[in-house]
Design a protein that fits this description.
The structure is a single chain. This protein is of the alpha/beta class. It has 2 domains: about 130 residues, Aspartate Aminotransferase, domain 1, CATH 3.90.1150; about 240 residues, 3-Layer(aba) Sandwich (Aspartate Aminotransferase, domain 2). Helix content is about 40%, strand content about 15%. It has 13 helices and 15 strands. The strands form 4 sheets. The protein has a 7-stranded mixed beta sheet, with helices on both faces. α5 packs across α9 and α11 packs parallel to α13. The longest helix is centred in the last third of the chain and has 23 residues. The model has no long low-confidence stretch (mean pLDDT about 95).
């Protein structure tokens, strides 16, 4: 007698709406077309072209050899959480106790745990856009409702977030305002005075703030971007997410962190247990090395980005029919293309004809239609070759 199941696969319609309604990730959709093609210059995903520095990989290897391969604290190794506290004191002059950190499986899991902690079904989350698509989809997965508030384009270049636009979007269901500054994909950087005004609004309306500060070191002036930690205290309803991915070329290591208000350590201890139990112990030792030895590497990364940013801004800015706002921060350039209504089709054409992989602007919301986004966290010579190919494509299209 056969024990094989005769049941049919469950139909898609039987799954919860919050799962069925997940939008396709248009960045991954384009990337999957040519991930293994060595001729393609891959500027679609937010990672640099440098390998993880040797002092980080060697710390992981040493930890493995020493037997650091077992379960550990759900919140993260105490030494790592203290290193994170020291890192924030060193760069922003803030005192955040080690007990307010939890170590997560990348920045994405930091955001997931933060939203799991505070969102209720039907809660609205205000997200300035264009924005990273993962944030809005995570809100929907958890039963919340993302509310897009478009950034305004300033006369003369750049973007701004108008506080009156945020205030107009508030409803009785608003629970959280999410800020990503420096921003993916626009490169917008929120000035500290505007952060203070938003903090005051959140306090007045009893709202949570989620600040995604992944790109804080990637600015192209004389100082790193401000942090909400500089203007808030441990009693504010503030969550700050971050990752090891961008600063130390550790995208594949899947390590990040979340800072939460005082008194919530037991909540995030439990969330860590039920999300991942913990990230690998030897990876956490690599993270300690990154924090304690990696400031020079960050400066190297930012310097490379500054030069490639210049190459793309000058090259694309000289082309007819191209509209761009030079990014103040992060390592992305989003630009508009006159006469192009279908960003996904345009990204496919650039990939096929120019062998350059770009992200379609619509991956970041409706405001991205007719736009493309590229990641310029690459060597200057590679940027020049990519610009040569893009110049040829846009001049003959």
């Amino acid at each position: 007698m056969s024990l094989a199941s005769t049941a049919t696969l469950p139909p898609l319609e039987s799954l919860p709406e919050r799962v069925r309604g997940i939008e396709i990730n248009q960045i991954a959709e384009i990337a999957d077309l040519a991930r293994e093609d060595p001729e393609v210059i891959k500027l679609w995903i937010g990672e640099g072209d440098l390998p993880t520095p040797a002092f980080v990989t060697e710390a992981a290897a040493a930890a493995m050899r020493a037997g650091q391969t077992r379960y550990t604290y759900a919140l993260g190794l105490p030494r790592l959480r203290q290193a994170l506290s020291d890192y924030h004191r060193r760069h922003w002059g803030v005192e955040v106790p080690a007990g307010r950190f939890t170590v997560t499986a990348g920045g994405m899991n930091a955001i997931m745990q933060g939203l799991q902690a505070i969102l209720r079904p039907g809660d609205e989350v205000i997200i300035p856009g264009p924005h990273w698509p993962n944030l809005g989809e995570t809100v929907k997965l958890l039963g919340g409702v993302p509310v897009d508030v478009p950034l305004r384009e300033r006369e003369g270049g750049g973007f701004t977030l108008a506080l009156e636009d945020i205030a107009a979007a508030l409803t009785p269901r608003t629970r959280l305002i999410a800020i990503n500054s420096p921003s993916n994909p626009t490169g917008w950087v929120m000035p500290k005075a505007e952060m203070v005004a938003l903090r005051d609004l959140a306090r007045e309306k009893d709202l949570w703030l989620l600040s995604d500060e992944v790109y804080n070191h990637y600015t192209y002036g004389n100082a790193i971007a401000p942090s909400f930690l500089e203007i808030c205290d441990g009693t504010d309803k503030l969550l700050v997410s971050n990752t090891f991915s961008k600063n130390w070329a550790m995208t594949g290591w899947r390590a990040g962190w979340l800072i939460f208000p005082e008194g919530l350590a037991p909540v995030f201890d439990n969330l860590g247990q039920y999300n991942t139990t913990s990230i690998p112990t030897f990876v956490q030792h690599a993270c300690i090395a990154a924090l304690e030895q990696g400031d020079d590497f960050i400066r190297t990364m930012v310097g490379r980005c500054a030069e490639s940013r210049r190459i793309f801004c000058e090259g694309l800015g000289a082309l007819p029919g191209i509209r761009l706002q030079p990014p103040e921060g992060a390592f992305y350039l989003m630009f508009g293309v006159d006469g192009e209504a279908d960003a996904r089709a345009l990204a496919r054409r650039v990939l096929t004809e120019a062998k350059v992989g770009l992200a379609p602007g619509t991956a970041f919301g409706p405001a991205g239609q007719g736009r493309l986004r590229l990641c310029f966290a690459i060597d200057a010579e590679l940027a020049r070759e990519a610009m040569r190919r893009l110049d040829g494509f846009f001049r003959r299209r």
